[in-house]
Amino acid sequence: MLRFRNQPLRLPSLKRFLIGIYGDLHLLDNAIQDTRCDSYINLYRYVLVLEDRRYYSHKGIDYISFLRDFWRLVTLRRHGGFSTIEMQLVRTVTARYERTLSRKLYEILLAHLCNWHFSKRDMLLCYCSIAYYGARYPVQHYGGLMPNCEAVAFNEFGKSLGELTEEDAAEIASYLVYPRPTHPTPLWLKKVDKRKRYALKLAPSYKYLFEYIPI
Question: Which UniProt keywords apply (predicted)?
Answer without folding.
Answer: Transferase
